[in-house]
Amino acid sequence: RLLAYGTEKLLLIDGFRMIGTAAQKAGVMSFVLGDIHANDVGTLLDLHGVAIRTGHHCAMPVAQFFGLPATARASLGVYNTFEEIDILAQALEKTKLMFA
Length: 100
What we know:
Largest sheet: 4 strands, antiparallel
Radius of gyration: 13 Å
Number of helices: 4
Shape: globular
Strand content: 15-25%
Distance between the termini: 32 Å
Number of strands: 4
Order of helices and strands: HEEHEHEH
Mean pLDDT: 92
Helix content: 40-55%
């Protein structure tokens, strides 16, 4: 339920693009945010207290094939909450504003 909620919530953000949309995927949301480099997204989210991973995530050949310099990835576990997804979405919106 948390992955479905997060996917639905984050897809509402202008410029947000989910990378990997398999129907039965695990609790991982890999994404890009407009033209903002994933490392910049990760750094700015960190300033808002949101921890994500950035980079190629052991998938550099396929990332290069699809023209992705890197992606950001939020990983969800049994300890995460819907409120944390809301905080991630708010932090992504603030990040977008810094590059507007």
